[in-house]
Amino acid sequence: xxxxxxxxxxxxxxxxxxxxxxxxxxxxxQAPVTIAQSSSQxxxxxxxxxxxxxxRQPALPADSGQTARxxxxxxxxxxxxxEMEIDTRGGDVRRLMLRNYAVSxxxxxxxxxxxxxxxxxxxxxxxxxxxANKDSAPTHKAIYTVAQTSxxxxxxxxxxxxxxxxxxxxxxxxxxxxxxxxxNYAIDVEYDITAGSQGWNGSQYMQLVRTPPxxxxxxxxxxxxxxxxxxxxxxxxxxxxxEEIAENDLSKVIGAESCKNTSSLKQGCSLSxxxxxxxxxxxxxxxxxxxxxxNLYYARKVKDAEKYVIGTRTAxxxxxxxxxxxxxxxxxxxxxxxxxxxxxxxxxxxxxxxGALTIIAKPLFWLLTQFHSWFANWGWAIIFLxxxxxxxxxxxxxxxxxSMAKMRKVAPRIxxxxxxxxxxxxxxxxxxxDMYKREKINPMGGCLPIVVQIPVxxxxxWVLLESVEMRHAPFILWITNLxxxxxxxxxxxxxxxxxxxxxxxxxxxxxxxxQKVFQIMPFAFTIMFAFFPSGLVLYWVVNNLLSIAQQxxxxxxxxxxx
Length: 562
Hints:
Blueprint lengths: L2 H26 L10 H6 L20 H5 L4 E5 L3 E6 L5 E12 L2 E9 L7 E9 L18 E3 L6 E9 L5 E9 L4 E9 L5 E11 L16 E6 L3 E5 L1 H7 L20 E4 L2 E5 L3 E7 L4 E8 L6 E7 L2 E3 L4 E12 L2 H7 L13 H18 L2 H15 L1 H28 L3 H15 L8 H19 L23 H16 L6 H18 L4 H28 L1
Parallel strand pairs: 1-6
Antiparallel strand pairs: 1-2, 2-3, 3-4, 5-10, 7-8, 8-9, 9-19, 10-17, 10-18, 11-12, 11-14, 13-16, 14-15, 15-19, 16-17
C-alpha cells in the first residue's frame, strides 16, 4: 500500500474529527438566550429545582409564600484559594471565586467566578433536607440565621467553620456547617439535626443548577465537554449532557443493573458510593455524598427556564425525639487537578476527560509532571516529553523511515512502470510486486509503525489540551500562555515548514491528485494550527523536527549503501 495514501487518510481523518467536534458544539445544542430576572426572582423561583419524590422517601415540602417574601443575607468566606458567598436562603453557594485562577491571561487580576447566580451564567450549588413532616426540614428555600456574615482564614489556621442555624415549629433544630480547608478546593458540609417532640425522619439532597455555558472563546478546532457526569462503582463514569437532560428528563436509565427495571426514572435511580458533577474545560463542581448508603440520582431541565439540574438524594434517616443525627457530604469546586481529585473520591480524577485513551494518557501526564518537577516550566516539560516518546518509538520509526527510504530509491522505476503500462492496472500491480520482492521492500513497512503510534499521539493531544496545569502557563520569550494560540504565529509557521521538509524527504506520490493534496497540506495545517494552543503546536513542532533529523540520517545511510 502507498505510504502517502495511509498518511493522507490519517490526516483527513484527524481534520474531519476536529471539524465534527466543532459541529457538535455549534449545532447539536444551542442554548436560547434567556431574559434576565431580578435577584430576588432568581433566588426564590423554581419549584422544579427540588429533588424528585420517591416511594421509599418522605414527600417534598411545599413552597411557602411567607418564605418567598422573606429577605436573605450573604455570608462572605475567604480562604487562601477561594472567595465564596453563601446565601442564608437555603445555605446555597451562590458565588465561588477561584483566587489563583484568572479569567484570562491578559487580565491576571480579574479572577474566575466558577459559581455565580448572575442570570446569564447561572451556576450554583444547592443542598437541603426533606422530611415526612414537611415543616421540620430546611430545603434550599428555607431561611437560616447566622451569628456573623464574614469569615476569613487567618494566618496559622487550617480551616474555617461557617455554621447556619434553623429551627422548626416542632422544636427540631438544624445546624448546617460549611467547613473550608487551607489549600483545598474540597468543602465539607454537615447537617447536625436535633429532633423535636415528634421525632424526625428524612433525607438530605444536594444538586448543581446551571445554565448552559455561553459561546466558548476556544479555538474553532478545540472542543471539550461541558455538562453533567455521574460516577458509581456499577456505572463507572457516564456523561449526561444538557440536550439529553432536556429531552429525556430522566426517562433514560443512568446505568446500574438495579435501576433497569424501574418503570419511570422520573423518580431517579438508586446508586451507592458515587458522586455527581458538572464539568467544563479545566474546572468542575461536584457533590460527593457520604459513602455507604444508597442515593437517588436525578437530572432535569427546570420548567420554563434554561436551567439544568443534576442531583442526588440520600437514603432516609430516623431520629427519635430529643436525639441527634448527622448528614455529611462534600462539595468540590475548583480546578481539575487530577492527583488531588484522586484523593477526594474514587474516580473523580476521570473528570479530567482524556476519553477512551485514558489508560495511555494518564502515564503520559505522569511523565509530563515529572519533567515539570525538574524544569519548573511546562514548555520544557512538553519538549522533553516529546523527546522521550520519540525515543520509545525510535525502532518503530526507524522501520518506517527505512521503508520510505527504499521506496524513494525505487520511485523513478515506479514512475517508468506507470508510463510503460499506462491504464493497465493489473500489469502495473504485478510488476510493482515483483520489484518489491526482488528489492526486499515491504510496502506496508512504513504504515504499521505509524498506525501503532497514532493512539499515543492522540493521547498526548488530550493530555496537553485537558491539563489545567497548562492553563495560562508561560514558556519563553513571546510564548506567555501555553493554553492560548501563538500571538505571532511563529510556531505554526515553523510547523508548516517542517511538514514541507518532511515531504521532501519522502518519495513523491505517483498519483497527480495526491501530489497536489500533499503540496497544500503544509499550508492548510499552518492555518489550522495557528489557532491551536501553543503548547499543542510546540509538541508537534518538536516531534516534526526530531522526525526530520531521524529520517534524514536513515535516508542518507540507505542511499550511501546503494
